Amino acid sequence: MPALDQDRPLIRHFRQILLWPLQLEVLSDAEGAAQPWTGLEKADSPWSRVECDVTHDPIATQERQYKEFVTFLPYVQRFLYGESRSRGVRPDDAPSDSPMQVFRRRDVAGLRITLRRGDIPIQLSVAHVDLHFFFDIDVVLLTVEVHTDDLPWSTALELLHRFGRAYPSGWDEAGQGVHNAYRTEWLGADGAVLAKSDSDNREKFLSFVCEHRAPCIASHWAFLLRPLILEHAAEEGAVRYRQLEYHRMPVMAYLAMDDPRALTSDDFVHLGLINAFRPGDPLPRRDPAVAEFEDRYCDDRYWTDSEAGPNTRAICTGNTLMLVGEAGSSYFRNEVHGMLAQFRHQFLLLFLIAHFHRATLLVFSDRLVDAINDLDIRDARSQLRFRKRIRDNFEAFLRFTHRYWFHELSERAQVQGLFCRCATHLGNDTKYQDVKEEVRDMSQYLDSDTQRRQSNTVIRLTVVTTFGLIGTVATGFLGMNLLAEADAPFAVKLGYFLAVMLAASLLTLFTVAKSRPLSDFLESLAEGRTGTRAVFASLRRIRSKREGS
Fold it and tell me: Who has the most CB within 10 Å: 93, 130, 443, 452?
């Protein structure tokens, strides 16, 4: 660990929460395909479902959960916690579970991380490792919360910058990954190493990209997600995942300091834009994100910059959500009534919902692109598959819009304000409109294609009816005893019947096969646009044309 700089503030309590959205790829014939979390409920799984059981929770925990619940508007409550458990007004309407299913990993208790080669390892406690699944949406979000006390400011920035990268973005001359931590290890309750990073295995990452045209996930993150398997990995698994965005995971951080007013404006910029600028590097002053930092990203409703306080500043850039406050404030450090409780629960949920919205929209966009790439207009099976995929996506998008999409989260000003900042900086509204237009264009294409097919069918039926009229009139003469075979043997009558049916069938099939040129012939004949010779010339061309039905 770097030596403590006496001029820099010390972080009395530090918490970091990583949130990683991933796209799920579930085999259609796999068991529990509709519920991809089924594999996490097996007896030997380290995962277990997270449920709120206030019956056995202590009063303090009940109160914390109550404050979390009432923070959100009713439709958000139903999204997060499900329907009411007692339905007295409509007893036939059974209560429904939450559309969000949460599973927690119980075997990971600690994190040991070495930021650079030669640094002393830092050991942090792991508060929780959760997976969030959603009904009807092939998105999963991994959340990891770690914490420690008495961390130097420079070390905290390096930790925020380096921890939370799915794979190395490159390697230095010594073969070590750049920007990511030198070594990361997950620890069990007994201190045993459960998994460690492999960022120095350059050949693994390079060969994987060359073979699959997709990045490989570092081993310690792959371990954390099992039994979910990376999309192109050689391991067997019915539920797989793929990356949606940049390898740098969205991050939240809570920093309790003796005097947060000791931080300079550059310190706040480095903290809020930790994903954009390396700690210690000079800031580009002309960059709009730096020049307009406070107006764009800072929520200062509880920041007075005075000894009387409060001095709590929230910074939200979309991919980061930072909370800085006074360690000596009992309200800021309180895990039941104070800002620490809000950060770990209300703020986490608003951050999760904003990123869930974005991840889902990216999944819809990716599926539409994949459907277009898979379309071959010359292949009938490809067209049928394309129409089915587009209709399925349209239905899923409607369910997402009515079940999950909302702009107002809470009546509490700070919670709603941070959610709006996060959604705005992520560009969720713009992305929603783009996907909506893409789905609408696809739907309109299917409607127009259906109308075209119906029009062609009407043309064929019209041509068949017109030419069938000739046969109908001709066979009508049979009723005038043109062929008096009423007393003929049954075999003779059956022969006539089969002959007429065969001739009529062949004529009908031929008319259907040549319906388009025959339609052109009839239209030319009716409108008199060409001479008689040209009309019959077009009729003769029917023999040489091979028109599709």
Answer: 130
Distances, alpha carbon 340 to alpha carbons 27, 107, 140, 327, 368, in Å: 41, 25, 25, 11, 41
Counting the structural domains of the chain, the total is 1
Residue 487 falls inside a structural domain: yes
Q: Specify the pLDDT at position 16.
A: 98
8 Å CB contact between 520 and 527: no
Residue 537: CB atoms within 10 A of its CB come to 11
Q: Which residue type sits at 416?
A: Q
Sequence-distant (≥ 6) Cβ neighbours of residue 180 within 8 angstroms: 162, 165, 167, 168, 169, 197, 199, 218
Residue 474 in domain: yes
CB distance 146 to 219 below 8 Å: no
Q: Which helix (H) or strand (E) holds 370?
A: helix 348-373
Closest CA to 257 of 120, 153, 351, 336: 153
User: Is 486 within the bounds of a domain?
Assistant: yes
Q: Please state the φ and ψ torsions of residue 417, each to the nearest 5 degrees.
A: -65, -45
Q: Which residues of the chain have pLDDT under 70?
A: 1-7, 28-34, 52-60, 84-96, 456, 459-460, 463-464, 466-486, 512, 515-549
Instruction: Give the domain range for residue 476.
Output: 466-540
Task: Evaluate the CA torsion angle 38, 39, 41, 42 in order and state its sign.
Answer: positive
pLDDT tens-digit profile of 357-380? 999 999 999 998 888 888 887 887
Report the distance separating Cα 479 and Cα 483, nearest Å: 9
d(CA 38, CA 46) in angstroms, rounded, equals: 13
Q: Where are the alpha helices (DSSP H) in 133-264?
A: 153-162, 202-212, 219-225
pLDDT for 416-473, tens place per residue? Answer: 999 999 999 999 999 999 999 988 888 787 777 777 777 767 766 776 676 666 666 5
Q: What is the pTM of this model?
A: 0.82
Rg (CA), the chain: 34
Residue 154 structure tokens: 């420079």
Domain assignment of residue 12, yes or no: no
Helix (H) or strand (E) holding 392: helix 380-403
